[in-house]
Amino acid sequence: MKNPQNVFLTGFYWAFVAYLFVPLMLMTAMSFKDSNFISFPIDSFTMKWYVQVVQDEQFLSAVGYSLMIAFVVTVVATAIGVWIALLASNEAIWGKAVIFALACLPAVVPGMIQAISMRIFIRAIDVPTGTFAIILGHTVHAVPFVVIMAMTRLRSMPSSLVDAARDLGADNFIAFFRVTLPYLGPALVGGMIFCALTSIDDFVRTFFLGGYQTTLPMLIFAKISGGMSPEINAMATLVLIATGAVGLYAERRVRRSRN
Predict the structure, then answer these.
(1) Which of 31, 66, 226, 236 is the most exposed place for a label (fewest CB within 10 A)?
(2) Cα separation, 136 vs 140, whole angstroms
(3) How far is CA 203 from CA 12, 137, 196, 197, 215, in A?
(4) Which residues neighbour 104 within 8 Å (Cβ) at sequence distance 6 or greater?
(5) pLDDT tens digits for range 73-93
């Protein structure tokens, strides 16, 4: 006889899976509909919306702009996050808990509040809205995730590894690049992928900090404001496939690095 608690938990799990994936499946199905409107039933299927999307210069420009911002945000956030993680993991540093709390604060502040505060900040320091402001806002939001992943990895790192490197004549700089950084590899891969995906997907901060050039979320929002169509579903499906592939690659890379 099955345990009622296990049956309930199994049913709850599959209900949650359906809640996550059924909307995505419906969105993907609608991207193949041979009609200008989103509705059931789907009488015939077509690929014309995908052809239209990949030939849309505005879409390609938005993708390129979003990828450029995501790349810069990932590099800067990773460098800052690793530095903070090393600082907060150092036993000789006073106030490590305060450093860690301040570094992770942007992850718990509501996005709207953070976007408004960043807009006020860049205006106070006389920085115009646009690419630099977007990178600044996305980086502030991404750093905590790198810090958390790097610190989690550092806590499992045997101190004897760095001590052995120093006994062999390595200074702090060489010990970091030859021992600590490779050990952080799996965590950094996950953190960098997370930074890139959150930057590409960030709408609220981009809305408040952006200029005239359009990112991918802003383009989709502008198109939705004009009415839903299968073309928007095709855009979202392509983004879903790309981000899913990157996520799976990162997961396999991290798992392989740990073996």
Answers:
(1) 226
(2) 6
(3) 31, 11, 14, 12, 9
(4) 144, 147, 148
(5) 999 999 999 999 888 887 777
